[in-house]
């Protein structure tokens, strides 16, 4: 569940204010004498451009933006806002063409003025950006290639559109409008420097080294990292909350375009030595078999609003599947290090006994915590010892612990599993604010 806070509402209001700044001073101003239709088209263009710029802010992985809602919600918002921003960008020229056919001549890039060339470039780059994002998996584009192309195309869209606005110049005579675009330009340039220059330099100072690599179930590998320079995070050192995640890239350079998100699978009480359980899949994950002890990794984080609460005694119910177990293990490791008496229940769905990720950790945790683990296998290796089953609504209803309405519930795994579990818990009258979820696959 999204933890709705006053700060999150505040950020939503800031977003609305920022994207509407270009309209300050009267982008739709009939006093210009050009008619409502034309001015409305221009207003859509301004609104689209400011929303595109805001997309950079949303995706910049800044803690003050991501903390109120969690990075999964922030990235989902980034994805959702891309559609209206793209729609406004397309409606802007289409309205112009509908109002007066003479504007169609601007599509001829061989004869059109430079301002029109930049407009065409921006629209074409936007179309490519949307298509590659929507059909990335269907077209089997690797995550690394998509990430690089996404950044380059997004930057092209923004810069070409801003060049178009500056060259047209008609609607920038108003002092407030000029001031608004000067502020936005400084914001976008500063953000670009922060994301592509300053943050990578900080990551270089805060690089991590692999100390252990251990094969795990279902094609995963457990990586243990330690800081090359423990003082690089200052007096407080590196800290995270149990359940959070970080973005990782390896070997080459902290200026790389390609970063992949992974949940930490270690105790928040030992942040100097962190663990990730990574399943070989795509992007950085595909490089895991080639990593060696001593290799340097760059870690950007921690992020996420999915983390262990501060309840000292309320029961804890963790529901996961596959690699979704990793943040849940981090929570249990943290409670074990704190010697917590809290009753813990871990329900895991997997294909069979050999596909349980972090199985050895879970077994050790059962010796350190009042932890009850229930495994559900869709195709168990030993069917007589373990019946075939599903982690479904019936399972949840049967195994709810005593004090279920006061318990905290953490869900992490495939979207279908989390949706089912959340709806089931709500039907069983578990308060919504007691249910927390982490979505994978949001990037």
Gist of the model:
The chain is an alpha/beta fold and 443 residues long. The chain is 43% helix and 16% strand.
Strand order of the largest sheet: 4-3-6-1-2-5
Helicity, as a percent range: 40-55%
Distance between the termini: 19 Å
Global mean pLDDT? 84
The total tally of domains equals 3
Largest sheet: 6 strands, antiparallel
SSE ordering:
HHHHHHHEEEEEEEHEHEHEHE
**Runs with pLDDT <50, length 5+?**
27-31
Number of helices: 11
Overall strand count:
11
Q: Radius of gyration from the CA trace? A: 25 Å
Query: What is the global morphology?
Result: elongated
**β-sheet strand percentage:** 15-25%
Question: Which class do the helix and strand fractions yield?
Answer: alpha/beta
Describe the protein:
The chain has 443 residues and is of the alpha/beta class. The chain has 3 domains: 6-203; 207-303, Translation factors (Elongation Factor Tu (Ef-tu), domain 3), CATH 2.40.30; 316-439, Nucleotide-binding domain of ferredoxin-NADP reductase (FNR) module (Rossmann fold, 3-Layer(aba) Sandwich). The protein is 43% helix and 16% strand. The protein is built from 11 helices and 11 strands. It has helices at 6-20, 36-58, 63-66, 71-99, 114-134, 143-168, 175-205, 325-337, 359-368, 393-399, 415-427, and strands at 208-215, 220-227, 245-250, 260-263, 273-279, 296-303, 316-321, 344-350, 371-377, 408-413, 435-439. A 6-stranded antiparallel beta sheet has the order 4-3-6-1-2-5, with no helix packed on it. Strand 8, helix 9 and strand 9 (371-377) form a beta-alpha-beta unit. It is elongated. The chain starts with 5 loop residues before the first helix and ends with a strand.
